[in-house]
């Protein structure tokens, strides 16, 4: 019984981790596609803090 429960929990945890990794990957790829492909800029620039500071400044109306 204990062995089956541990196996079940291990499967659930690995499934949750897989979903989290896939969601993070989809977000990163979406940001890169949107910034680089649609915005016409370098996709790697999305990881620069200055891009995010500019983004949040525009959201706040500064």
UniProtKB/TrEMBL annotation:
A Pfam family matched by this chain, by name? EpuA
By its UniProt entry, which InterPro entries does this protein fall under? Answer: RNApol_su_b/EpuA
Q: Does the keyword Membrane apply?
A: yes
**UniProt protein name:** DNA-directed RNA polymerase subunit beta
Q: Where do the TM regions start and end? A: 12-35
Q: Which keywords, in A-to-Z order, does the entry hold?
A: Membrane, Transmembrane, Transmembrane helix
Organism field: Pseudolactococcus reticulitermitis
């Amino acid at each position: 019984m204990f062995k089956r429960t541990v196996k079940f929990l291990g499967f659930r945890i690995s499934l949750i981790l897989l979903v989290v990794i896939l969601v993070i990957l989809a977000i990163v790829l979406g940001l890169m596609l949107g910034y680089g492909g649609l915005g016409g800029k370098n996709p790697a620039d999305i990881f620069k803090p200055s891009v995010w500071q500019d983004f949040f400044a525009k959201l706040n109306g500064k």
